[in-house]
Structure formats: structure tokens, C-alpha cells
Design a protein that fits this description.
There is one protein chain. By secondary structure, this protein is mainly alpha-helical. The protein contains 7 helices and 2 strands; from the N terminus they run H-E-E-H-H-H-H-H-H. Helix 1 runs antiparallel to helix 2, helix 2 runs antiparallel to helix 5 and helix 3 packs antiparallel against helix 4.
């Protein structure tokens, strides 16, 4: 799973470097990695959007790697299916419109083109709140409560620190 998360994050970094963005840091998190770019918000909106969407698009790169590993006997068909399901989960999960997931960041980038900073931020919190409720329901059903707790804490921290960030 961490290999898939690493490929996902390196896709952000690679496209950012292609666009001549500077990477500030790459953090290791409980559920993967996070790359931060220097003055990312100053980049053109379409570059920001492409860099954000590069992560979920990395599903296809990971799929090719997993297929090659399976075809070369590195793991069984069952292991390939489990790994590919994890790969698909990472891609789809990151498209949820919950900030700071890629889907939430993409929504924020698009909204910022049409709304003021304050309205964009408020809309981000509202969309993230409803996404968090959906994640909570699904997490309860799938018995993945730690992930829901982690995202809830992330959301609360965002609300508390938001005035400092803007």
C-alpha cells in the first residue's frame, strides 16, 4: 500500500518538477505521503489542477507496475487483485472532495477562479464537512474507523488554524 501511495505522491512531484515548481518538503503521514511545493498557490490555476490530479491519475502507472510484477511471478493472482484493489481505492479515495485530499484541492482550485478567497474557503469547509459525513458512514460500514478519526482530526485542525493560514 505504501508503494502505491509513494507512486501517487511522486506523480504530483514529477509533474510539479516538469512545470518547474520547487518542492518544499515531502512528509510521511499515517496513511501515505504529502508533498508541498514552494508558493504553489502562485502558479497558474491549470498547472495547480494538473499537479493535483496527477496523483489519482497515477493509478494507471501503479497498475502497469503491479501487472509487470504479477506477470514476472513476483506475487500470486490473489495478491495482484488485492494490490490492484488497494491501488483503485487510493485513486478513488483521493478524488473525494474533502480537503486536503486531491478532490478537495481540485474543487478549491476551480472555485478560487470564480469566487473570492473567503467564499472559496467557506465553500471548501462546507463541501469537506458533507464529504466527511459520507466518509464516516462508509468508514463505519467498512469498519475503517481509524481513517475517519484521522480525517475528522484533520478537519478540526483546519478549522482552528484557518485564520492563521489566510
Amino acid at each position: 500500500m505504501y508503494l502505491i501511495a509513494f507512486i501517487h505522491e511522486m506523480s504530483h512531484v514529477t509533474l510539479g518538477l516538469i512545470f518547474k515548481m520547487k518542492v518544499e518538503k515531502i512528509k510521511f503521514l499515517p496513511f501515505g505521503f504529502s508533498a508541498e511545493f514552494v508558493r504553489f498557490e502562485d502558479e497558474k490555476w491549470f498547472k495547480q489542477l494538473l499537479v493535483v490530479l496527477a496523483g489519482p491519475a497515477s493509478y494507471f502507472i501503479s497498475l502497469l507496475i503491479l501487472k509487470a510484477m504479477y506477470q514476472n511471478g513476483m506475487f500470486s493472482y490473489y495478491s495482484f487483485v488485492v494490490a490492484n484493489n488497494s491501488n483503485l481505492f487510493v485513486a478513488l479515495f483521493n478524488l473525494i472532495p474533502f480537503y486536503p485530499l486531491d478532490g478537495g484541492r481540485a474543487v478549491e482550485i476551480i472555485c478560487a477562479r470564480h469566487l473570492s478567497e473567503k467564499k472559496t474557503r467557506i465553500l471548501r469547509y462546507i463541501i469537506s464537512f458533507f464529504a466527511l459525513i459520507g466518509i464516516g458512514v462508509i468508514s463505519g460500514y467498512l469498519k475503517q474507523v481509524p481513517l475517519f478519526i484521522y480525517l475528522t482530526i484533520t478537519y478540526i485542525i483546519q478549522l482552528i488554524t484557518s485564520k492563521r493560514e489566510y
